[in-house]
Amino acid sequence: MAMVQIQNINWKKDTDFYVYISLFNIETKERSILKVNDIKFNFALSKHRFCTGFFKDKKHFPCRNLGMPTILTSISSQCYLCEKEEGFRDAFLFGKEPNENAKKYLAQEHYVYLAYFSPNIIKVGTSSLERKEIRPIEQDALIYAYIAKSDGFNIQKLEHEISKRFNITESVSSRHKVKYLFQKPIIENAKFKITNLFNKITDYYKDTEYKTWFLKELNIINHSDKPYIKYPETLDDFIYSAEFLCGKFVGLRGKILIVENYGNIIGIYKDNIIGHFIEGDSNEKYLPVKEQNNLQQPLFK
Hints:
Number of helices: 7
Oligomer: single chain
Order of helices and strands: EEEEEEHHHEEHEHHHEEEEEE
Number of strands: 15
């Protein structure tokens, strides 16, 4: 069987938003992007997760480790060498001097956004221009608005300032998102909180170095009532790490892949699927999760 690796499960947009799975054939070096709207997963997975390589100038490169990619020992989808080659984590997350690849990325326009999470949380975050539509929805930020823009070298200054000054979080845990996975946001409440905070922020910074960064109009985006966003009534089980990916695709909410398996609605932590090789069909292993005791793991170790 061809050595095919699961490299990503995430959102894209053409005429509308959809979820895709990215597969990489390590032998032919071909990368495939497949919509998963009606897919029925039935994959037996490799024992280990492996580095997915890196992107440079929007082109994918396999892991720098010759032969088989590096076995991963953390939740990251990249080994140390490929992370360094891409340069994003060092520059944007750790504040180190960016390499040439990261400089090109950071030179583009970046935005600050405010996002609403049930029951009453507002998060401040950032996105690049090229990921402006995808970044919020992949974080399960279903109601949000962009409020300011600058380049990637400076945008985090304002993000951190707003977070500190107005006591707004820069992250919402996956544990919290799972807890409120079933609760559809109250749209008017979300819009009110975002608008009210935007007015307070722009008023506070009107005579500062940031005053020209803010957008003139507030445009609140709402994904919460769209058909591509699913609200399961319950999760019958949750899988943190698995030997199999089995079930009919239902939806993707943040890092939680939702599948239906013999009538059971199951949440799977997708970051622990990425990097595995598909070793074949699971066949007789395709059973209700509650019969697969070896798959059951605590929620977010």
